[in-house]
Write a structure and sequence with these properties.
By secondary structure, this protein is an alpha+beta fold. The protein has two domains: 13-196, Fructose-1,6-Bisphosphatase, Chain A, domain 1 (2-Layer Sandwich); 205-324, D-Maltodextrin-Binding Protein, domain 2 (3-Layer(aba) Sandwich). It has nine helices and 14 strands. The protein has helices at residues 13-37, 52-68, 80-103, 109-116, 135-140, 221-231, 244-250, 274-282, 317-324, and strands at residues 41-42, 50-51, 72-76, 123-133, 145-152, 155-168, 171-179, 183-188, 195-196, 210-212, 237-239, 256-259, 286-288, 309-312. The strands form three sheets. A seven-stranded mixed β-sheet has the order 3-4-5-6-7-8-9, with helices on both faces.
Amino acid sequence: MCRLVTFTSSYDLDAVLGTAREAVRVASRLCMRVAAEGPARLEKTGREPVTLADYGSQAVILGMVAAAFPDHGVLAEEGSAHLLANGGIPAVEAVAGLVSEISETHCTAEDLVRRIDHPGGRGRPVWAIDPIDGTKGFLRGDQFAVAVGILDDGGSVAGVLGCPRLTIGGTTGVMVWGGPGLGAFVEPIGGGKPTPIGVSPIDDPAAVRVLGSVERAHGDPAVIESVVRRAGLGGGWVRIDSQAKYAAVAAGLAETYIRPRNREDWRERVWDHAAGAAIVTGAGGRVSDLDGHRLDFALGRTLDQNRGVLATNGLVHELVLGGLGEGV
């Protein structure tokens, strides 16, 4: 068992991370069950699609949070209203049955709605939850992540990513977790001993590998390609869906992940970055916005004061910032 550093605070971060890891493990198992059965797709206007697995995953995680830490704050992506409007009671009952089976707890349709919509309290910390980050990847059979970030004092103090299709160190299906002052670790998602991980030691621009999304609509590919040319990053592209990109940086599979803002009015969602930012920092890397500023997670559901996101191994961070240019 890896000994964690506990922050001086009104809560036990060891206990919080223990619950988060178990919740992500169970939620990941649920997602893979749905994937094996052929996930039904429900559309969200102007957003990524959502599946029954998204709702089941969130219900698993928030059910555990409500039971263990009912006063903790919560920021979560999904709500039951869309599920009810688009799938009706049969969909709710189907997800409730799946949650009951996978989590080995009794979950009625009413329980499911209550778990999905658990509002949290006003205590510290705040759980930032993305039940499936990268739903399009999930539907394609590619990468996705079950993401839980732990927020306090404007920062992300810990994170857990369940990546059932990602391979690290020869193991496919991993959970990656950690945070500032904690280090970073990987373990088999089905259970096993955590192993420390760290960012890549590469600092030669010619060898720097750049992470990109499979979905070209995510971020601005033209901006990223421009940065690659300006900074002379010659290690090639690694294309991965979801916050699994953060896990890849933390484990040394790539050196940089650039997320430019693809619209002037766009602001990143907190749950899309909270877990990954903590893990990369714990692994020895650096995460900032495109101006080099710290990500501010204290402003609600979005990163209102930040322009895009940059995660690197730390050694090439200033190099990549310099390649961004003005107005990106």
